[in-house]
Design goal:
alpha/beta; 10 strands; six-stranded mixed beta sheet; 9 helices; 266 residues
Protein backbone atom coordinates (compact mmCIF):
# COMPACT_ATOMS: atom_id res chain seq x y z
CA UNK A 1 0.00 0.00 0.00
CA UNK A 2 1.32 3.46 -0.88
CA UNK A 3 -0.12 6.58 0.73
CA UNK A 4 0.61 10.27 0.60
CA UNK A 5 1.72 12.11 3.70
CA UNK A 6 0.00 15.31 4.81
CA UNK A 7 1.70 18.68 4.42
CA UNK A 8 5.25 18.15 5.72
CA UNK A 9 7.54 19.97 8.09
CA UNK A 10 11.25 20.13 7.40
CA UNK A 11 11.96 17.33 9.88
CA UNK A 12 9.52 14.92 8.29
CA UNK A 13 10.77 12.40 5.74
CA UNK A 14 10.62 12.96 2.02
CA UNK A 15 9.92 9.24 1.70
CA UNK A 16 9.96 6.27 4.02
CA UNK A 17 9.15 2.60 4.38
CA UNK A 18 7.62 1.40 7.62
CA UNK A 19 7.83 -2.22 8.77
CA UNK A 20 8.53 -3.16 5.16
CA UNK A 21 8.22 -6.76 4.09
CA UNK A 22 8.62 -7.96 0.49
CA UNK A 23 8.16 -11.56 -0.67
CA UNK A 24 9.45 -12.96 -3.94
CA UNK A 25 9.27 -16.55 -5.12
CA UNK A 26 7.76 -17.72 -1.87
CA UNK A 27 10.46 -16.26 0.39
CA UNK A 28 10.99 -12.99 2.24
CA UNK A 29 13.51 -10.72 0.53
CA UNK A 30 13.29 -8.12 3.31
CA UNK A 31 11.22 -7.94 6.45
CA UNK A 32 10.68 -5.50 9.35
CA UNK A 33 12.61 -2.71 7.59
CA UNK A 34 12.15 0.94 8.62
CA UNK A 35 13.95 3.50 6.50
CA UNK A 36 13.46 7.23 5.93
CA UNK A 37 15.23 9.96 3.95
CA UNK A 38 14.90 13.62 4.96
CA UNK A 39 15.80 16.81 3.09
CA UNK A 40 19.56 17.39 2.86
CA UNK A 41 20.35 13.95 4.30
CA UNK A 42 22.50 11.27 2.66
CA UNK A 43 21.42 7.79 3.73
CA UNK A 44 23.62 4.94 2.54
CA UNK A 45 22.32 1.38 2.49
CA UNK A 46 25.00 -1.30 2.55
CA UNK A 47 24.85 -5.06 2.81
CA UNK A 48 25.73 -8.32 1.09
CA UNK A 49 24.41 -9.27 -2.33
CA UNK A 50 20.86 -10.55 -1.97
CA UNK A 51 20.41 -8.59 1.26
CA UNK A 52 17.47 -6.61 -0.14
CA UNK A 53 19.06 -3.22 -0.88
CA UNK A 54 17.56 -2.67 -4.32
CA UNK A 55 14.23 -4.18 -3.24
CA UNK A 56 14.00 -1.70 -0.38
CA UNK A 57 14.80 1.24 -2.68
CA UNK A 58 12.13 0.16 -5.17
CA UNK A 59 9.58 -0.19 -2.38
CA UNK A 60 10.48 3.29 -1.11
CA UNK A 61 9.83 4.65 -4.61
CA UNK A 62 6.53 2.79 -4.88
CA UNK A 63 7.82 0.64 -7.77
CA UNK A 64 6.95 -2.60 -5.99
CA UNK A 65 4.16 -3.37 -3.55
CA UNK A 66 5.10 -4.68 -0.10
CA UNK A 67 3.53 -7.78 1.39
CA UNK A 68 3.80 -6.12 4.80
CA UNK A 69 4.08 -2.54 5.96
CA UNK A 70 3.81 0.50 3.71
CA UNK A 71 5.70 3.17 1.79
CA UNK A 72 4.93 6.84 2.35
CA UNK A 73 6.05 9.97 0.54
CA UNK A 74 5.47 13.70 0.45
CA UNK A 75 2.75 14.98 -1.89
CA UNK A 76 4.07 15.72 -5.36
CA UNK A 77 7.56 14.52 -4.47
CA UNK A 78 10.06 15.03 -7.31
CA UNK A 79 12.36 12.01 -7.54
CA UNK A 80 15.56 11.44 -9.50
CA UNK A 81 16.55 7.78 -9.88
CA UNK A 82 19.71 6.09 -11.14
CA UNK A 83 18.84 2.38 -11.36
CA UNK A 84 21.40 -0.37 -10.97
CA UNK A 85 20.66 -1.66 -14.45
CA UNK A 86 19.35 0.29 -17.41
CA UNK A 87 17.60 -1.35 -20.36
CA UNK A 88 19.41 0.19 -23.31
CA UNK A 89 19.97 -1.32 -26.74
CA UNK A 90 23.68 -0.73 -27.15
CA UNK A 91 23.53 -1.49 -30.87
CA UNK A 92 21.46 1.64 -31.53
CA UNK A 93 23.17 5.02 -31.92
CA UNK A 94 22.31 7.29 -28.99
CA UNK A 95 23.98 10.47 -27.84
CA UNK A 96 24.18 11.72 -24.27
CA UNK A 97 21.64 14.40 -25.18
CA UNK A 98 19.19 11.76 -26.37
CA UNK A 99 19.76 9.71 -23.22
CA UNK A 100 18.68 12.75 -21.22
CA UNK A 101 15.31 12.73 -23.03
CA UNK A 102 14.45 9.04 -22.55
CA UNK A 103 12.26 9.56 -19.50
CA UNK A 104 10.68 12.84 -20.60
CA UNK A 105 11.21 15.95 -22.64
CA UNK A 106 13.25 18.65 -20.96
CA UNK A 107 14.26 22.14 -22.15
CA UNK A 108 17.70 22.27 -23.71
CA UNK A 109 18.79 24.78 -21.08
CA UNK A 110 17.87 22.34 -18.29
CA UNK A 111 19.79 19.53 -19.98
CA UNK A 112 22.84 21.71 -20.51
CA UNK A 113 22.71 22.83 -16.87
CA UNK A 114 22.48 19.25 -15.58
CA UNK A 115 25.38 18.09 -17.77
CA UNK A 116 27.38 21.07 -16.55
CA UNK A 117 26.68 20.23 -12.92
CA UNK A 118 28.11 16.74 -13.33
CA UNK A 119 31.15 17.98 -15.25
CA UNK A 120 30.39 16.73 -18.77
CA UNK A 121 28.83 19.69 -20.65
CA UNK A 122 31.08 18.93 -23.65
CA UNK A 123 29.68 15.41 -24.11
CA UNK A 124 26.08 16.20 -25.08
CA UNK A 125 26.66 15.11 -28.69
CA UNK A 126 28.84 12.10 -27.85
CA UNK A 127 27.50 8.56 -28.48
CA UNK A 128 27.02 6.76 -25.17
CA UNK A 129 29.02 3.80 -26.54
CA UNK A 130 32.08 6.06 -26.62
CA UNK A 131 31.87 7.07 -22.95
CA UNK A 132 34.14 5.76 -20.22
CA UNK A 133 32.54 4.10 -17.22
CA UNK A 134 32.80 7.29 -15.18
CA UNK A 135 31.39 9.47 -17.96
CA UNK A 136 28.41 7.16 -18.42
CA UNK A 137 27.61 7.24 -14.69
CA UNK A 138 27.83 11.04 -14.77
CA UNK A 139 25.40 11.09 -17.68
CA UNK A 140 22.95 8.94 -15.69
CA UNK A 141 23.37 11.28 -12.73
CA UNK A 142 22.68 14.29 -14.96
CA UNK A 143 19.51 12.60 -16.22
CA UNK A 144 18.43 12.06 -12.60
CA UNK A 145 18.91 15.71 -11.56
CA UNK A 146 17.53 17.47 -14.65
CA UNK A 147 14.13 17.89 -12.91
CA UNK A 148 15.77 19.30 -9.75
CA UNK A 149 14.62 16.41 -7.57
CA UNK A 150 13.82 16.65 -3.88
CA UNK A 151 14.86 13.01 -3.46
CA UNK A 152 17.75 11.41 -5.34
CA UNK A 153 17.93 7.59 -5.30
CA UNK A 154 21.21 6.09 -6.55
CA UNK A 155 21.58 2.31 -6.87
CA UNK A 156 25.29 1.43 -7.14
CA UNK A 157 26.19 4.70 -8.91
CA UNK A 158 29.90 3.91 -9.36
CA UNK A 159 29.59 0.72 -11.41
CA UNK A 160 32.41 0.30 -13.91
CA UNK A 161 34.41 3.19 -12.45
CA UNK A 162 37.96 2.99 -11.16
CA UNK A 163 39.04 4.08 -7.68
CA UNK A 164 39.90 7.69 -8.59
CA UNK A 165 36.61 7.98 -10.46
CA UNK A 166 34.69 6.62 -7.47
CA UNK A 167 36.16 9.28 -5.20
CA UNK A 168 35.24 12.01 -7.66
CA UNK A 169 31.69 10.70 -8.14
CA UNK A 170 31.03 10.55 -4.41
CA UNK A 171 32.37 14.08 -4.00
CA UNK A 172 30.05 15.13 -6.82
CA UNK A 173 27.02 13.51 -5.16
CA UNK A 174 27.81 15.42 -1.98
CA UNK A 175 28.08 18.66 -3.97
CA UNK A 176 24.72 18.02 -5.64
CA UNK A 177 23.14 17.37 -2.25
CA UNK A 178 24.50 20.69 -1.00
CA UNK A 179 23.35 22.60 -4.09
CA UNK A 180 19.85 21.14 -4.40
CA UNK A 181 19.18 20.55 -0.70
CA UNK A 182 17.78 17.18 -1.72
CA UNK A 183 17.71 13.98 0.26
CA UNK A 184 19.88 11.17 -1.12
CA UNK A 185 19.38 7.43 -0.78
CA UNK A 186 22.57 5.73 -1.89
CA UNK A 187 22.92 1.97 -2.28
CA UNK A 188 26.52 0.82 -2.18
CA UNK A 189 28.96 -1.90 -1.36
CA UNK A 190 31.91 0.51 -1.48
CA UNK A 191 31.95 0.80 2.29
CA UNK A 192 35.35 2.38 2.68
CA UNK A 193 34.58 5.29 0.35
CA UNK A 194 30.96 6.34 0.33
CA UNK A 195 30.43 6.38 4.06
CA UNK A 196 32.76 9.31 4.61
CA UNK A 197 30.18 11.67 3.06
CA UNK A 198 27.17 9.91 4.57
CA UNK A 199 24.95 11.12 7.42
CA UNK A 200 23.28 7.79 8.21
CA UNK A 201 24.32 4.24 7.35
CA UNK A 202 21.85 1.36 7.28
CA UNK A 203 23.20 -2.20 7.13
CA UNK A 204 20.69 -4.45 5.42
CA UNK A 205 20.79 -8.24 5.50
CA UNK A 206 17.17 -9.20 4.88
CA UNK A 207 16.41 -6.81 7.73
CA UNK A 208 18.18 -3.89 9.37
CA UNK A 209 21.17 -5.28 11.26
CA UNK A 210 22.71 -1.92 12.25
CA UNK A 211 22.08 1.77 11.71
CA UNK A 212 23.73 5.06 12.67
CA UNK A 213 26.45 7.54 11.84
CA UNK A 214 29.32 6.02 9.79
CA UNK A 215 31.91 5.72 12.56
CA UNK A 216 29.38 4.41 15.07
CA UNK A 217 28.25 1.76 12.60
CA UNK A 218 31.78 0.56 11.83
CA UNK A 219 32.32 -0.08 15.53
CA UNK A 220 29.20 -2.23 15.86
CA UNK A 221 29.58 -6.02 16.14
CA UNK A 222 26.94 -6.52 13.42
CA UNK A 223 28.92 -4.43 10.93
CA UNK A 224 32.17 -6.22 11.69
CA UNK A 225 30.42 -9.57 11.35
CA UNK A 226 29.05 -8.56 7.94
CA UNK A 227 32.10 -6.85 6.47
CA UNK A 228 35.04 -7.65 8.71
CA UNK A 229 37.24 -5.35 10.83
CA UNK A 230 39.37 -4.38 7.81
CA UNK A 231 36.43 -2.44 6.33
CA UNK A 232 36.34 -0.20 9.41
CA UNK A 233 40.10 0.40 9.17
CA UNK A 234 39.81 1.35 5.49
CA UNK A 235 37.08 3.86 6.27
CA UNK A 236 39.23 5.49 8.95
CA UNK A 237 42.12 5.93 6.49
CA UNK A 238 39.86 7.46 3.85
CA UNK A 239 38.18 9.80 6.34
CA UNK A 240 41.60 11.02 7.48
CA UNK A 241 42.79 11.70 3.93
CA UNK A 242 39.48 13.32 3.01
CA UNK A 243 39.75 15.72 5.92
CA UNK A 244 43.35 16.74 5.40
CA UNK A 245 43.95 16.62 1.67
CA UNK A 246 43.01 20.19 0.84
CA UNK A 247 44.39 19.78 -2.66
CA UNK A 248 41.71 17.27 -3.58
CA UNK A 249 39.33 18.26 -6.34
CA UNK A 250 36.11 18.86 -4.40
CA UNK A 251 34.07 19.64 -7.47
CA UNK A 252 33.83 16.03 -8.51
CA UNK A 253 35.77 16.33 -11.78
CA UNK A 254 37.82 13.20 -12.36
CA UNK A 255 39.77 14.79 -15.24
CA UNK A 256 39.60 11.59 -17.22
CA UNK A 257 41.24 9.36 -14.62
CA UNK A 258 38.55 6.72 -15.09
CA UNK A 259 39.12 6.24 -18.81
CA UNK A 260 40.79 2.89 -18.15
CA UNK A 261 37.79 1.77 -16.11
CA UNK A 262 35.85 -1.25 -17.15
CA UNK A 263 32.72 -0.42 -19.13
CA UNK A 264 29.92 -1.92 -17.12
CA UNK A 265 26.81 -0.55 -18.77
CA UNK A 266 24.76 -3.71 -18.36
Amino acid sequence: MEITLPSPSAAEPLAAVENLGVRLGGRWIVRHVDLAVRPGEIVTVIGPNGGGKTTTAKALLGLISPAEGRSVHRPGLRVGYVPQKLAIDWTLPMTVGRLMQLTGRHPRAAIDAALGEVGIPHLAGTPIQALSGGEFQRALLARAIVRRPELLVLDEPVQGVDFAGELALYELIGTIRDRLGCGVLLISHDLHIVMARTDTVVCLEGGVSCRGAPHAVTESPQYQRLFGPRAAAALAVYAHEHHHDHGQDHHGHDHGHDHDAEHHHG
